[in-house]
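Hi P.,

Sorry for the delay on this. The queue was packed all week, but I finally got your sequence through. Input first:
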Amino acid sequence: MQAFLNGWLAQCKKHGLSSELIIVEWNPPGDRPSLTEVLRCPADPASCSVRFIQVPPEIHQGYRYASVLPLYQMIAKNVGIRRARGKFVLATNVDILFSDELVQYFAEGHLHPGRMYRIDRFDVMRDVPADDLVEEQLAYCRSHLIRINAREGTHRLTANGLRALETHDIAPPDSGISFGRGWYAVEHHSEQEVFRWVENIAEVLVRIPFSPPPSLYFEIEPGPGVGSQIFDLQILDEDQHLQAHTSIAGPARITLRLPSDGQAVRRFSFRVIGGGLPARQDPRIMNFRVFRCGWSTASEPTPDGAYHVEASAPTFSVYKAARSFALKLVKAYGFYSEAGGVLRAVLAAARCYMRSRKLPVKVGKGDIFEHGSGIRPGAQWYPLEHRLRETFRWVSKEAQLIVRCPKHLHPKTLVLAVEPGPGVRDQPFELLVRADDGRTVARALVKGLELLEIPLSIVPGKTQVFRLTLEGGDLPALRDPRVLNFRVFWCGWSKSETTADYVYDQARRLLKTNSEPLDESVELQQTNHSTPVYLHTNGCGDFTLMAREHWFDLRGYPEFDLFSMNLDSVLCYTAHHAGFREEILPDPMRIYHIEHQTGSGWTPDGQAQLFARLAAKGLPFIDYAEVAAWAAQMRRLNRPMIFNGENWGLADCELRETSPDCGISARGGN
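Then the structure:
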């Protein structure tokens, strides 16, 4: 705690950061000195005021588990947040040190309302020299790293700060290949087959084994993040400039030839264009997975000293072939079971084949909206459904289409695959397309499964809202309480004017010229609401930063009478669905967490001891499954869950506050 206090005050002085430090002393033992007596405050804290707020044992004893839980951490944080005076409030803990780059970022005024700021946490060995200068403390932290807690998970670190390979990994242990941001932990089909999933941007660091450098290979397989579409895989250099790209249509072996400029260590990144779609039962972004990677045996210098990448068919594996055949058998059995028998399955398969010829694309397990089209669903759409190899969404009435097309495209014709439903007794009906002001801008007769081409007045770069509806309908379904007037199997733009491939071709050309990310209007909003939004909740109790008014909007952390585990994650989901967009501050901005005694708080090594201790004391906590269920519900409703009343943070209690005589009087800061 002394290291935390010394470090923060010294950094505020060094960088000219105006702030206040609020330390909440919850349930102080009567036989020990208070924190104001124990902690040594520098004589000149410069622009930082220090406030101690004490929550007495009498209040603590009013909680159910007071006898076995000496600190209600989240309620204590709320006490400080409720009484904070600064424009922004950072909720953290006293076993944290901040990198100079992070404090400088605060001091330069880069924070903005409307954001929830998060950061990676680096765990360090516990013997941080408390009385040394903050520069020496930070140097100790950089050289005594244990692990990193990132959005993709918790990873062990090597002595030089790289993410360590696991015992069974996709790269050989002596290969000199390391995986950085954007790679998930190793997963297993079996001990013989392991893989890692990759999100939108994934860093790779390699130590070149000899010169000129040999080629690298990666055996990959597309995942749910790219749906059933061809995607563009790009290679970015250390400065995030585009160097090479290739198209991926299925399982492939990627061969990457590196520049032969004599560098011994090289860092590059994969970037996926056309990915980021949600998985059905997993909140992570899983664009593709890598089963193996390594070096080729021969040197292959590039003629122009640049990166070169190409995709080819993957190497044959008997195990993979057997697994693929087994998966096909499982799918066939699932189709047979869903159809209700062999004869029905044959008839259903024939029907699916005939119907599929009317659809412009194979939708698969992705959504019905053309990937990259700038079209996304608004209100009044039922969730995505899959039956007998078909994917669709039911509609009652007034289903919103939110359209924002890229500025370089000029589409005019909307394509819809539509079929009548029980709400119109499966009979023909007239589909109406209305503008946001209620005007009917198009109409079309739907007799059966129809592929409709509907002309629309589209303004590229502008967000427009249309509604799909009909007159009449609303008849009850036989075995479904919902109103099912019609269902939509596909929604996109006419192939004669623009397609997703055209969008990606245009984007690739722009990226090759400008080395800039794809325009956000090309990205399809995630519409799978059965899983939580993918947020950085790993270690969020040590760093969550928002504008003061946002903390008040949310009424702080949930004040449940139980152990505090996962309540910080609930707050992150609540903030996101209240409209406060997550922003992850990048390296070299860091927080360093001084390691706990095993079992005293959560660590990968001490998790079992912690849970055993909680069980022995009879202390309940919110497990991740319950957090995920709440987060998914918030996502479905697009609304935050507010758990506390107006008196959150013990607002109705008069608490003792002291400001030690160590400089300026208490006042608001940043």
